[in-house]
Amino acid sequence: MKTTLTLLLLLLNVIGSFAQKDSLELGNRYADDQIYVTVSYAQFFDQPTEISKSNFSYSLSLGFLKDVILNKQGSISVAAGVGYGFDFFNHKLKVTEINNTTAFTSDDEISANLFKSHNLEFPLELRWRTSTANKYSFWRVYAGIKFLYNLSNTFQFEDATGTTFKYSDVSNYNKFQYGLTLSTGYDEFNINLYYGLTPIFNNSTINGEVINSKVLKFGLIFYIL
């Protein structure tokens, strides 16, 4: 956790140093550098057949995107960035770790079955918008891919006796993940989608079935100029 906080503080310093260059005019062109904040509803999909849908789960992220224009009008660009993300899942898959071996089971008697993760994010986007260097209310469609590197993960649950079990940085967790992203909307109101392409676990099975659980996030993204 101490390492995570240090990295987050470093990220915020980097964001602060670049955010002042949010609208760089280059003739008729401009660069739309931005701080982004996302608030999303999250779910696992491609779950094993015996695992039911997760309960309410959410995701938060914060970062900075550097914009590079591709045409004279500035309506098309690419953007790359770095950020921090936190995921909280109230899920149904029981995960335990004993002697660096991860085990997966289905147990209806456990409660408060939670999963938390802290990630570094590296978004890459192709952008289209109707803005100009002097027009800040506009339509946008930003599509791309986001790479995630897991800083820490924790699986926690309570058994039928009320005893709490917690396992951190489980060995089968996939620390490097990526997925498709789409952000679209007008002015400050923008819908954001993340569709995971990589399973969250490596080489994992439950009762002989491969675990291909991936992450789906749907929510709002706010761009701060």
Question: How would you describe the overall organization of this protein?
Answer:
It is a single chain. The protein has 225 residues and is mostly beta strands. The protein has one domain (2-224): Porin, CATH 2.40.160.20. It contains 1 helix and 15 strands, in the order αβββββββββββββββ. It has one helix at residues 2-18, and strands at residues 23-26, 29-32, 34-45, 58-69, 76-90, 94-98, 101-105, 111-129, 139-158, 164-168, 176-186, 189-196, 205-206, 209-210, 214-224. The strands form 4 sheets. It has an 8-stranded antiparallel beta barrel. It is elongated. It starts with a helix and ends with a strand. The model is unreliable at 14-24 (pLDDT under 50).
